[in-house]
Amino acid sequence: MEYTVKSGDPSTQRTACLILGVFSRRQLTPLAQQVDKASKGHLSRLLKRGDMDGNSGQQLMIYEVPGVTAERILLVGLGKARELNMKQYAGAIAGAIKVLNESHPVEAICGLCEVDMDDKSLYQIIRETVLQAEDTLYQYTETKSEKKKSQRSLKRLGIFIHDRRQLKAARKALTHAEAIANGISLTKDLSNLPGNICTPSYLADQARKLGRGNEKLRVQILEEKQMEKLGMGALLSVSRGSRQPAKLIIMEYKGGKPGAKPVVLVGKGLTFDAGGISIKPSAAMDEMKYDMCGGASVFGTMQACMEMALPINLIGIVPSSENLPDGDANKPGDIVTSMSGQTIEILNTDAEGRLILCDALTYSERFEPAAVIDIATLTGACIVALGNQASGLMANNGNLATEVLAAGDHAGDRAWQLPLWDEYQEQLKSNFADMANIGGKGAGTITAACFLFRYTKKFKWAHLDIAGTAWRSGANKGATGRPVPLLSQFLLKRCGYSD
Ligand code: BES
Ligand code: MN
Ligand code: ZN
User: Fold this and answer.
1) What percent of the chain has pLDDT over 90?
2) Residue 202 and residue 335 share a domain
């Protein structure tokens, strides 16, 4: 969709639909009051009839409002004025966009963005408005025979700003939001693709494609031969069970000062996880095509960062492989040597994510990173701990942890920290190697991070376990694009955007 900033008199806007807010007990927002005045009280008279009282979730489309140029007005319930928060606001936007997209208007003006919300800036509200709209309009069509996205959809949305002094902030919000939304959409598209299409080679091609569009992006793909030379025995052991060759995808965006230390994002790109010889039960196994969502979020964040032309050096690393049972696959008890030299006893071949990530983390040392964040659908235990609301966060540095948590809060894409105490390391003891790849009963999310921790001694590191947040199951099955909003906000903040 196309977004613009609109300003002036709300009642004389030439538009197919003006979206206005109503709080509980029929209380019009200041902007809606202004339109009400222009219509000589038409809106408040209608509300008095009782069709809508302003509770959240309510909507009322009204036509031919006297004294108003807009062809129609969509009244949207926002709930109690004092209790309005971003979650409710987002719901109201999603509802409005859905209704408009399913009806006639190809264009509308949103008059909700100037609502009062505790500690939320106009910039933030506009950004959320666009992200919500794009999330609502997202359609996956790649593998449907009817590839054309459904016709009569909403094409343009104006964001109404009453206070012209905020014009600059509003425009900035739109630019940022559109870039982030495009990143999210790329992440969803890649994630939703099935494992027979989205293979490690496919992801490598997508990275090359991303590089073709931008001279500031250098893309390099390491093949298995090169990984062998580097000694990536852990990563390669996983792909031995697959006919698809593994790829190590490296994307270097140079937007910052030459020589400035980069932020490195490492995303798990397991394009299908059957568990290997420790095979998974078959129920919902199809969802293991989503085991590359971490990698996909690196692609999406990279894209958003490039589109915003952020003045930062950013490196994306995506180790990509399948995890399948095969005569040559890892067997429980096998011992492999990682690139770091540390040996690993593979007690469960389904704990493969950490095996491909540990070598990618060691590889990232060469960039002398300012910080490394890895993103992975790493443990089912994370869903047990946090459900589908928060990503799990673990880190070897308190300041970095705080920074990531704050970015998540700001972006409404939250993470929650779990401890990485030394005591948990004991669970990874092996009689035959430097460590086992599983930590036994209890704290599965933490022991997985403890494993990665052993490969992050040379830099500040944070780990996001997105097993519960990267996709939705059930009737609405689909990728969410998380944590692209968190990561984008993290980068924006690092670039000095404080809004
Ligand atoms: N990709 C899975 C984790 C996962 C499972 C994410 C279900 C989302 C939903 C990972 O590779 C895995 O299989 N982890 C094992 C680890 C265990 C063997 C220690 C798990 O969580 O069961
Ligand atoms: Mn697994
Ligand atoms: Zn996995």
Assistant:
1) 96
2) yes
